[in-house]
Amino acid sequence: MVFFLQNIINALQWGSFYAMIALGYSMVYSILMLFNFAHGDIFMVGAYIGFGVATGLVTLSATGFIALPGWVILVLTILLSMFLTSFVGMIVERVGYRPLRDAPRASAAITGLMIGIILETGNLALMGARRVSFPPLIESVTYNIGGVFVTNKKILIVVVSLAFMLALHLFVQRTRYGMAMRAMAFDFVVVPLMGVPVNTIARLTFAIGSALAAVAGILFGLAYPVLDPYMGIVFGWKAFVAAILGGRGSIMGATLAGFLLGFIEIFVAMIFPSTLRDLIAYSIILLILVFRPHGFFGEPYSARLRL
Amino acid sequence: MRKGLKWIAAVSVITLLLAPVAWGKAELIKVGINAPMTGDIPKVGEGSKFAAQMWLEDIKAAGGLDVGGVKHPVELVIEDNESKAESAVKTNTKMITEDEVLVIVGPQSSKQAVPAGDVANNYKTPMISPWSTNPDTTKDRPYVFRGCFLDPFQGPVVANFITNEFGFTKAAVLYDVASDYPKGLAEFFKKAWEELHGPGSVVAYESFTTKDADFSSQLTNIINSGAEVLFTPQYYNEVALIVQQAHELGWKKPIVGSDSWGSAETIELCGAACHGLFFSTHYAAAGATGKTKEFIDRYQAKHGYIPDDVAALTWDALGIVGQAISTCGKITGDVEDDRQCVRDAMAKIKEYDGITGKMTFTEEGDPIKCAVIVKISDKGEYEFYKSVCP
């Protein structure tokens, strides 16, 4: 039982990352009908920006100029990195995707791959091949609850990511911009004719997705404090799987599928030999997609309409 | 007749012009370094490069490499293998066919050295891997050598050490199944441990694949298995994550590693979580004496940190290469003949006294040398703990 509960905690943490990155994929896909394959690398850029901001603030704090406690640095790091990374997202949209908006989908898809490679190798050129160690902003405290070990970081990661997902959900459902996004997801041709500014909405979508990826990157840095320029690739693929599994453009779906992916990976490794983890985990997901080709919350009609 | 004389004159003039160049200038010796400058373990590449450059400095200071009384200039061809098997193969092929190197030093990790060794052997080019401990690197390859001990030796060394030091009987292993070195060593450790404590005494044998960052489910399995010690033969980037996550999941028992832990970067990434842990390796920097200390001091003065085992082994490998080229007797400029000559000379070296210890070579081109158990001190230094000889 303790063993089982421990793995649930593990899966919750791991799933949070997939969920947060899947949201970025899902949003862009629903509005512009393109897979932003660079999203995994934007997550990596977010983590590095977070690393830069956090290291800067820690150094500043250490000089005694303004002594900030660790959690204040963490909050500032998250906010500042979200802001900065959202610009990276907007630049990617402006440079990589807008000129290709009417191009065949395949061109837009490989643009994503190319931007991904540019971001990876650009980082390699900038930072060098050295791994960087994310500063431990908050002291790790481990709680032993009847044999189940939970750290304050794990709680923080799950709570913060759920809070951001809820905020995004409210934004999309309750605000005018959110309404415009939903409308564009519904029909990309007619809605702009009714006065919805396509470019603004596209930019906003990229900004929000990238900001979320930055949050994921910083939380990732806290939990797994070794960053490298290629950390976003496999992670991006898997989160992409979650986005598709969740259903086109569904925030609930992407969140749920992200957590499901985390649970499947962790529990497969618990039951089967860990060597077979991804083999079995992704076979299960393939099976789910065979029975639900549009994901959990996807709408079959819009997919037929546009693809 | 006049035409014939003209020709003779022209040819003699050209010959006279060229002669000083041909006689006065000794053949350039090119040594290839195949190292991971980028990718998963760039610190390993950096150590290899720095050690090689120091070696070259010494050669230059001596006016070249002395081969049969002639001083030959030496050039290093340092190429990046991105820490990937396929790139290491490509790099070796390029250095052999395009750069026409005489001998290759590297690749460092077995993941690259095993496939790259095949290329060197096929092209009949001598290659020496300073750091690759997997037996397959040199097996049935007369042109491939190495500068370190092997995993069939290292596995039992660690198993014996844990048994004698702690008296444990139940061990867990966590390793990367997609990489030759951890996979090979994990198997040798398991075999040695089960010989000591009976079948089933490795109570958890968990794996992951390269680039994984979350080991929580494997570690939860390990903790649940009742293991008393965790052996994880991983590279420095994973060591930090594994050790920290194990502690966060409530693991308080020892974690033991292998020579891949020995990088200067391990402590930087892992921090205090790694203090007090043990690993087996090729040499211990703290407390070194003689020429080992000389090398360490020189390296530290130049690059600002203590050289790790890769740097020291690369230094020794280049020393062996230098000796082999010298004993070869003559460098003709015909790179294929010279390669054969150097490979034969290298195979004839029976003993070499390097900074990582005395080594004697077997038929396979593998050295027999001692291993060192290192303890990571509370200051994060690699302290000599004990030496284990075959």
Walk me through what this model shows.
The complex is a heterodimer of chains A (307) and B (390). Chain A has 307 residues and is mostly helical. Chain A has a single domain, classed as ABC transporter involved in vitamin B12 uptake, BtuC. Chain A is 74% helix and 4% strand. Chain A has twelve helices and four strands. Chain A has helices at residues 2-32, 39-62, 70-97, 105-127, 152-174, 176-186, 190-193, 198-223, 232-246, 251-271, 277-291, 300-306; strands at residues 132-133, 142-145, 148-151, 226-227. Chain A has a two-stranded antiparallel sheet. In chain A, α5 (152-174) crosses α6. Chain A starts with a helix and ends with a helix. Chain B has 390 residues and is α/β, with parallel strands linked by helices. Chain B has two domains: 29-148 and 288-369, Rossmann fold, CATH 3.40.50; 151-281, Rossmann fold (3-Layer(aba) Sandwich). Chain B has helices at 2-24, 42-61, 85-97, 110-122, 151-166, 180-197, 216-224, 236-248, 265-270, 290-303, 309-328, 335-348; strands at 29-35, 65-67, 70-72, 74-80, 103-105, 127-129, 144-146, 171-176, 202-208, 229-231, 255-257, 278-281, 351-354, 357-361, 367-368, 371-376, 382-388. In chain B, strands 9-8-10-11-12-16-17 form a seven-stranded mixed sheet, sandwiched between helices. A five-stranded parallel sheet of chain B has the order 4-1-5-6-7, with helices on both faces. A three-stranded antiparallel sheet of chain B has the order 13-14-15, covered by helices on one side. In chain B, α2 (42-61) packs across α11, α5 packs across α6 and α11 (309-328) crosses α12. The longest helix of chain B is centred in the N-terminal third of the chain and has 23 residues, at 2-24. The chains are: A mainly alpha (307), B alpha/beta (390).
